Fold:
Amino acid sequence: MISKIKYWLLATRPKTLTAALVPVVCTTALVHFHQLPIQWEVSVLALLSSLLIQIGTNLVNDSVDSGTGVDTEDRIGPQRVTQSGIFKAKTVMNAAHLCFVLALICGIPLVLKGGLPIVIIGLFSILFGYFYSTGPFPLSYKGWGDFFVILFFGIVANTGLYFLYSGLWNLEALILGLQLGLLCAVLIAINNLRDHATDSKAQKLTIPVRFGVNLARFEIYCLIFVPFLLVLYWQIKYPNHIWWPLAVLFFLGLSLARKIQNTAPSPRYNQFLAMASMLYLVFGLLITIGFLCRP
Structure:
């Protein structure tokens, strides 16, 4: 029983779940920054819905990739429960469906509060989470995985939560969402660069497979650089707030980019994924501090 729980936790890919956590924390801080009242039940339900959608997406991916030849014994990334034979593909897919249903249930109070826009956001988030790896046009197999992450784990997550609090679509929530979405996409870009050889064999047309390793590296540079460039917006508009630690953090991003430039795709990229995850998490923490620490 304990071992099964351990493997189910492994299947959720817990190290990636900061993608759901950081936007909710940062947007809630932005709401406070704009002097709007915090409704913790809104943030908690949004977080639960986002986590369940992400876990469901991860489980669909685990179930499908073993059957398409993407996850094989040659895989150099973390262990996958379906490919390893720990769980059957159908079992993992059923667990994904359960996560999506629970996400819908958590979203009902949010729909009652936000109306039709939240219905649209919720349904499309679940649909695109499911079709990320399967269906007639699986996004990750057609090179759209990076865009999906930027859109749904960045722009949509931040602007949608801000809308729930204010009833407005806010430019600063959009800028924040773009920053977080781009940094979150660094993880999938590194993952795709690491796996480009096995992805190519399985005809998974990620950006490295479509356009080559050099362009994939350039993409990662842009995904890292642009969020820090956008810090200038916060510095110029709110010069008395604490933004300078983000400038220091940029050097961690620069170090990561250099390591990727100088290292051929290999198991060492798993270390780079950990660095990218830390970069994303700390960026979210520091910009949250910038919002909360009033001059």
Q: What stands out?
A: The longest helix spans residues 40-68. The chain has one domain: 2-292.
